[in-house]
């Protein structure tokens, strides 16, 4: 989850045998400076298909992988400052879908030429954002009806 400028509200980085690590690293970058990393056990293997779900709550992100709790990641930057979602690296993304709380308005952003997705700044309390992506989008997906429990498959690709 990104903010305008160089800030990154939530960086999710699964590592596979990276310097003998097999871990998931979460972090925040403020003004270009990385904060203290949080590390969690990575139960994924290279080539696995997985579902990543990030739920935005008032004080934290709830991070789940394949319907299993990974952590509560405390906000280090106010969530209303989040403007983009960016997915990059050695992952084959099948879908990206933003799911909003019924009480918050959703406005469809204008098309962009990169794999960067706008996020409504009104996501504040107990909202679930589930990430899906369709290859080579020409525009952002229309707002789905409010719902929970949608799976978000990704596939990790070896370098």
From TrEMBL:
The keyword Transferase does not apply. InterPro entries: ConA-like_dom_sf, Galectin-like, Galectin_CRD. GO terms for molecular function: carbohydrate binding; galactoside binding. Pfam families: Gal-bind_lectin. Keywords: Lectin. Residues 1-99 form the Galectin domain. This is Galectin. It comes from Ditylenchus dipsaci.
